[in-house]
Specification:
Layout: H1 4-18, H2 26-36, H3 42-49, H4 54-62, H5 80-96, H6 98-108, H7 115-141, E1 155-159, H8 164-176, E2 180-183, H9 194-199, E3 206-211, E4 215-217, E5 226-228, H10 231-244, E6 249-253, E7 268-270, H11 276-287
Parallel strand pairs: 1-2, 1-3, 3-6, 6-7
Antiparallel strand pairs: 4-5
Helix pairs in contact: 1-2, 1-7, 1-11, 2-5, 5-6, 5-7, 6-7
Length: 298
């Protein structure tokens, strides 16, 4: 059964893509593609994409290119359902190869010299109508069942190292947005180990991980020591990615901190002195499904 709240998550991903920049657009694209490939949609997706050849569609579209920039046109079929299937395939390809999305936008949705103009044009002209029509297609061809959506927890766990200033700044900001910050060392021990205290807070709805230069380290093959986050912070980062999902974890990097190679594919935000991280964090919370008043984000 397809749950109606899946469409809300799809809509949230589209909204996040709409407000993204060059550093952050990959995450909502991948989230959107993952949601569109939910197991509950398998039969619908197979029906929608049956017999479609994306490579042939792109090859036919290239033939329309003229001598002027922006003259090339996509060879959409007259059948709207087939066009919907091709759009589904394109979104999956965007997620698999984000650079392809940049080139695709420049070629077919040209908006000037700025890279993000093409991506925003794709979102506005193709992905937003697709999300609307895809929901209609699923509702008409599949089975849906109402689902009781439990209220989301407003507790946000703050994973931190030795930078007390960064910890308190983030905690105050979250509190101002209406969230309840959870800081580990403020929790009663009750004879528990650290990991048991973390597990006791399984009702949190989001986690903010502060990557601050508290330690130094290097590989045995290297000579230079590099600033890095404390190992307990990386352990807790992995725990919350597993427990909550990547879309409910936001990492804030402060200063020059070596990013672990296994984390390179996950979006992190720079905790800059200008305060730009505040809006970025608010957007991540909203994309995760929380109600956030962006007027309070500054």
């Amino acid at each position: 059964m397809v749950q109606p709240d899946l469409f809300q998550q799809i809509n949230n991903a589209v909204l996040d893509l709409q407000s993204s920049d060059l550093q952050s657009y990959v995450r909502p694209v991948k989230t959107l593609a993952r949601l569109l490939q939910d197991p509950a949609l398998d039969m619908i997706n197979q029906q929608l994409t049956a017999g479609l050849d994306l490579d042939a569609f792109l090859a036919e579209s290239v033939k329309s290119e003229g001598g002027m920039v922006g003259s090339v046109r996509l060879a959409w079929p007259d059948d709207r359902d087939k066009g919907l299937g091709l759009e589904w395939l394109l979104i999956r390809k965007f997620a698999d190869d984000p650079d392809f999305m940049i080139n695709f936008g420049h070629t077919y949705y040209y908006g000037g010299s700025k890279v993000m103009a093409g991506i925003h044009n794709i979102t506005r002209q193709m992905i937003i109508p697709f999300a609307r029509d895809y929901k209609g297609y699923v509702m008409a061809h599949g089975n849906t069942q109402p689902k009781l959506v439990m209220p989301m927890s407003n507790k946000v766990f703050i994973v931190h190292g030795h930078d007390g200033e960064a910890r308190e700044t983030v905690a105050r900001y979250l509190h101002g947005l209406g969230f309840e910050p959870v800081i580990l060392h403020e929790q009663a021990n009750q004879g528990r180990t650290v990991i048991e205290k973390i597990e006791a807070n399984r009702d949190v709805g989001f986690a903010v991980v502060l990557l601050t230069p508290d330690d130094v380290g290097r590989s045995v093959k290297e000579d230079e020591l590099k600033p890095r986050a404390r190992q307990n912070v990386l352990l807790e980062l992995g725990y919350f990615i597993c427990h909550l999902g990547r879309e409910r974890v936001c990492a804030l990097r402060r200063g020059n901190v070596d990013i672990p190679s296994d984390f390179a594919g996950v979006v992190w935000e720079s905790m800059d002195d200008g305060g730009g991280w505040r809006l970025a964090l608010a957007r991540e919370l909203r994309a995760a499904g929380h109600e956030v008043d962006l007027n309070k984000a500054f």
